[in-house]
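S.,

Sequence below, as promised.
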Amino acid sequence: MLLISCPWCGPREETEFGYGGQAHVAYPANQDEISDAEWAQYLFFRDNPKGLFAERWVHSAGCRRWFNAVRDTVSNEFLRIYKPGETP
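The prediction came back faster than expected:
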């Protein structure tokens, strides 16, 4: 079992958390003007690297706050955990 360290609550078991996908994906500023293909690109296409990856997580069974993490997708090691708005 993985231990994930919530920035507000500290280390907890992974079962308390929910995965939220890739971090730092900017919402389209002109969503009324983009094509269906561009909207689909924003909604469904994400990076899937082998190695370091910035992700969003939510402490769903705890404080219910969202945070970001840099995780190595090969070893599942969390290298950095930071609050929204902070730099990775």
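Strands lie at 3-6, 10-13, 18-22, 52-58, 66-72, 78-82.

Coffee later?
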